[in-house]
Amino acid sequence: MTEADITYQISEILNRVWDLQQWWASVSFGVLVVAYLVGKQMSGILVCILLLLYTAYSVYMWDLMGVNVNVFYAYVGDLQKLSDSGVELSAGTIEYLLHPKLGAILAPLALIGTFISVVGYTLYAFFRRENHEAA
Fold first, then answer.
1. Rounded mean pLDDT of 93-116?
2. CA–CA dist 31, 24 (Å, integer)
3. Of 65, 59, 58, 54, residue with least CA distance to 20
4. pLDDT tens, 34-68?
5. What is the 3-state secondary structure (H, E, C) of the chain?
6. Neighbours of 73 (CB within 10 A)
7. I need a labelling partner for 46 at 20 to 30 A (CA). Which of 77, 92, 111, 119 fits?
8. Is 50 within 8 Å of 31 (Cβ atoms)?
């Protein structure tokens, strides 16, 4: 593959990962909206089903993102091999060869933090209702 082919594939993978993150964030906010608007009317079994489905979807999305990140790094390895073979890479392509900066730390932190927040708020909304009804 040429430099242009590899950088195009990397660009497509990064776009795909971004799309997956957006879908997952949308579902996360949807769960928050459900917990906020109808959390008072939801039974314990519905809360469990909602959180089970949300967890399954989250694990599925994280797995898909992980596969795409692995493919991204494989293509970056191909770029490195291309560079090592003596091909002069463009300045933009060289940026892919540099070690990831904060994104490698902040992206997983944001995903995990969002997941914990959504699950936590959903449980909070449910138990707040349970405590008000018991009082």
1. 88
2. 11
3. 65
4. 999 987 788 889 999 999 999 999 999 999 999 99
5. CCHHHHHHHHHHHHHHHHHHHHHHHHHHHHHHHHHHHHCCCCCHHHHHHHHHHHHHHHHHHHHHHHHHHHHHHHHHHHHHHHHHCCCCCCHHHHHHHCCCCCHHHHHHHHHHHHHHHHHHHHHHHHHHHHHHHHC
6. 14
7. 111
8. yes
- Residues in the chain, total: 135
Tokens 């932190």 identify what position? 109
pTM: 0.85
Which amino acid is present at 76? V
Residue 11 has pLDDT above 70, yes or no: yes
Show contacts of 28-33: CB within 8 Å, 24+ apart: 28/54, 28/114, 28/115, 28/118, 31/118, 31/122, 32/118, 32/121, 32/122
Q: Packing angle between helix 44-84 and helix 3-38, nearest 10 degrees?
A: 170
Q: What is the average per-residue pLDDT within 66-92?
A: 94
* Ramachandran angles phi, psi of 100, nearest 5°: -60, 145
- CB of 115 closer than 8 Å to CB of 58: yes
Yes or no: say if 125 and 53 are a contact pair by the CB < 8 Å rule: no
